[in-house]
Amino acid sequence: MNFIRHYSMTLALLAAAAVPLCAQKWSEPGEVGALPPNILPAQLVGVEVEEHLNLPVDLQLEFIAENGYPVKLGQYFHKGRPVVLNLVYYTCPMLCNLILNGQTEAMRELPWTPGDEYEVVTISINPQEGYDIARQKKAIYLASYDRPAPGWHFLVDKDNNAKKLAEMAGFHYRYDPKIAQYAHPSAIMILTPEGRMARYLYGVRYRARDLRFAIAEASEGRITNAIEKILLFCYHYDPKANAYVLFASNVMRGGGILTVILIAFYLRRMFRADRQRMARLKEGLA
């Protein structure tokens, strides 16, 4: 009976592990635009994060704040206060909300407040978005943060400065006019109080400890290489148009493999415990 129970559990765990392995949707054989595995679609070529550690950004770049007034980026850089930088777009149907949700969750666990120990600057990479939508987005996330955050700022583009800032930060994205969406990587960036790139955090979930260390190190002007660089990409999927909703196959495949390894380790220990239990039972009956 133990074996049957363990076998059923194994099947369930392997089925769960198969989800990330199969989560990437490929075109069916014969479909228009079919891609072989591990081939990056043309729309995502060049979409990446190139770490520009210790390089400065231009603090004179101007943007439009959520109140409709132009502001210089340097307005948010103060002595002793590092800056967490988001490059997203507010009408993004996919990854941007996950990035902001993950960041907000990590920020809630910090003992610090945006505006006191650090600043947060969220900037739209979509030049068509106005400050009204930035104001709405700010209201949503400050409500989610659930405590005062005078140092969290939501800006929109001005004079294509979002693209200029992104290139300085090494955050490379592309616009697809066919579907009016941006293909972009998932990452948040931490800058020193002087405006130098200090740390990159990847993915859509951020450990509060990592964010805390990144902010603390950046406040002291320390530059830190990322230990893990696993990128997700935000993009629409249409197999006939050869595009992707979320191209993260390598991440998913790696997660699936890790899951299988952990399951195998768990099963090995479980079966060994069963054998030892049966041996003790036989000794007791002898």
Q: What features would you describe in this structure?
A:
This protein is α+β, with helices and mostly antiparallel strands. The protein has two domains: 2-24 and 249-285; 42-247, Glutaredoxin. Helix content is 38%, strand content 18%. The chain has six helices and 13 strands. The strands form three sheets. It has a seven-stranded mixed sheet with strand order 3-2-6-5-4-10-11, sandwiched between helices. A hairpin with a 5-residue loop joins strand 10 (187-191) and strand 11 (197-202). Helix 1 packs antiparallel against helix 6. It is elongated. The two termini are 21 Å apart.
What's this model, at a glance?
With 286 residues, this protein is α+β, with helices and mostly antiparallel strands.
Give the strand line-up of the largest sheet. Answer: 3-2-6-5-4-10-11
Backbone CA Rg: 23 Å
Whole-number mean pLDDT: 79
By DSSP, the count of extended strands is 13
Poorly predicted runs are: 1-35, 235-253
SSE-based structural type: alpha+beta
Query: What CATH architecture of the largest domain do you see?
Result: 3-Layer(aba) Sandwich
Estimate the strand proportion: 15-25%
- Secondary-structure element order, as H and E? HEEEEHEHEHEEEEEHEEH
- Please report the distance between the alpha carbons of the first and last residues: 21 Å
CATH superfamily of the largest domain: Glutaredoxin
- Main β-sheet description: 7 strands, mixed
Number of domains: 2
Helical percentage? 25-40%
CATH topology of the largest domain: Glutaredoxin
